[in-house]
Task: inverse folding
């Protein structure tokens, strides 16, 4: 059963951290002071990787630069995406331990052992993945707000951007409510989630068939 009646995370605190970091000068190129709590360190790490990934995704769409520059962007995207997913898994591990829903000795293995209350429903989306989606929504909100403030576009573009910003704000509020509901249900023994390993194969030379073939050709 959950180890505490106090929620280990609140959506409002996640949103505040996301927005504060986005408003920090020099971030995400230079990281901000990490929080003291390990859970929040990983929430921050996830957000930073999403912000770095966002910038590289924009650069990778350029059409008037050398192919080598786009290749560098694509390699950076792979690295940031791997780090982003690693952070999601760490957030889930720490939350499940705080909620008493995973055997702590197995939490970081490939097969974490769930400690499931009788009758609890399984949520297919984890709290970590919700926090990741909230991070991405905060980036979308900032980008759409910037579009609404441009002075090199017409009024129709700015109006459309404001409308989209409002819809994104609603989506973030809805998702924040869903995160709080999942945590509350987990605390009450009504729901649980698991650590889902992504096992991303493309970054692993042992599993990516193209990299395996390259290694064999050089042997």
Result:
């Amino acid at each position: 059963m959950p180890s505490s009646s106090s929620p280990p995370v609140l959506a409002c605190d996640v949103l505040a951290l996301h927005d504060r970091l986005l408003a920090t000068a020099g971030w995400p190129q230079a990281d901000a002071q990490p929080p003291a709590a390990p859970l929040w360190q990983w929430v921050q790490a996830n957000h930073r990787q999403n912000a770095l990934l966002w910038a590289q995704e924009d650069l990778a769409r350029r059409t008037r630069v050398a192919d080598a520059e786009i290749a560098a962007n694509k390699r950076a995207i792979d690295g940031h995406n791997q780090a982003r997913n690693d952070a999601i898994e760490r957030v889930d591990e720490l939350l499940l331990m705080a909620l008493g829903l995973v055997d702590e000795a197995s939490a970081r293995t490939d097969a974490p052992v769930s400690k499931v209350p009788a009758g609890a429903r399984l949520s297919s989306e984890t709290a970590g993945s919700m926090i990741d989606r909230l991070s991405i929504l905060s980036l979308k909100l900032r980008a759409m707000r910037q579009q609404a403030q441009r002075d090199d576009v017409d009024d129709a573009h700015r109006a459309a951007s404001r409308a989209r910003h409002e819809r994104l704000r609603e989506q973030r509020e809805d998702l924040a409510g869903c995160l709080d509901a999942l945590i509350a249900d987990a605390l009450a023994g009504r729901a649980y989630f698991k650590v889902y390993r992504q096992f991303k194969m493309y970054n692993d030379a042992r599993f990516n068939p193209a990299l395996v073939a390259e290694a064999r050709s050089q042997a």
